[in-house]
């Protein structure tokens, strides 16, 4: 996790700090090595969110595109189930960043829990992903927003079949303001909306 509570303030990991998890209030320790991004971890092997995944520099760079107060937001449903969203905007839109493979059952569970959400998926995780995307660009149509395209053949472009993904470029910060318009357009076209970003960058 990126943030933990230190003296009741949300803080990033720093050498020597001791905090507690904002989700379960259990003790956390700062992991500040050279192999992974600095982060907080529960003492022992405990984890309070079953959807937790190790955070990569790819995840962290995407989170950095948003205010810190929107990152790692704890969300609860009517039954009291609790999960931590990568990003939750002030309007309640959840943005999940997915670098590794995600089983379809878990993907469906996350979408059912968060409801209003979009995925940002790493389209260059495997060796063939980037060439496939470049080849599939011929099937993409531009939208009214600069840099946003729709395809009705996502299997030709993306490694995850049937996944509706909205990818945001760091240079198009106003894209989220058009969420409703984009959602209506996606529904009308039954396609996938994708923001093209430079390879290796958010």
What report would you give on this structure?
With 202 residues, the chain is of the alpha+beta class. It is built from four helices and twelve strands; from the N terminus they run βββββαβββαβαββαβ. The protein has helices spanning 57-63, 104-114, 129-136, 179-189, and strands spanning 3-6, 9-12, 18-20, 27-31, 39-42, 71-76, 82-88, 94-98, 117-121, 140-142, 148-151, 192-195. The chain has a four-stranded mixed β-sheet, covered by helices on one side. Strands 3-4-5 form a three-stranded antiparallel β-sheet, with no helix packed on it. The longest helix is centred in the middle third of the chain and has 11 residues, at 104-114. The two termini are 20 Å apart.
Give the ordered list of helices and strands. EEEEEHEEEHEHEEHE
The computed structural class is alpha+beta
Uncertain segments: 161-192, 196-201
Helix content: 10-25%
Helix and strand arrangement:
Layout: E1 3-6, E2 9-12, E3 18-20, E4 27-31, E5 39-42, H1 57-63, E6 71-76, E7 82-88, E8 94-98, H2 104-114, E9 117-121, H3 129-136, E10 140-142, E11 148-151, H4 179-189, E12 192-195
Parallel strand pairs: 8-9
Antiparallel strand pairs: 1-2, 3-4, 4-5, 6-7, 7-8, 10-11, 11-12
């Amino acid at each position: 996790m990126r943030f933990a509570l230190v003296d009741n303030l949300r803080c990033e990991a720093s050498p020597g700090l001791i905090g507690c998890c904002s989700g379960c209030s259990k003790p956390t320790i700062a992991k500040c090595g050279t192999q992974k991004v600095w982060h907080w971890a529960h003492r022992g092997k405990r984890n309070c969110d079953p959807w937790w995944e190790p955070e990569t520099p790819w995840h962290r760079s995407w989170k950095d595109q948003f205010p810190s107060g929107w990152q790692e937001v704890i969300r609860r449903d009517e039954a009291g189930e609790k999960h931590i969203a990568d990003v939750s905007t002030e309007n309640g839109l959840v943005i999940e960043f997915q670098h590794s493979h995600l089983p379809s059952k878990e993907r469906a569970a996350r979408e059912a829990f968060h409801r209003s959400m979009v995925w940002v998926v790493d389209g260059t995780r495997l060796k063939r992903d980037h060439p496939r995307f470049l080849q599939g660009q011929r099937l993409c149509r531009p939208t009214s927003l600069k840099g946003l395209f729709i395809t009705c053949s996502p299997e030709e472009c993306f490694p995850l079949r049937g996944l509706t993904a909205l990818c945001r470029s760091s240079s198009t910060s106003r894209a989220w303001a058009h969420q409703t318009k984009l959602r209506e357009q996606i529904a009308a076209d039954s396609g996938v909306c994708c923001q093209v970003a430079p390879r290796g960058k958010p």
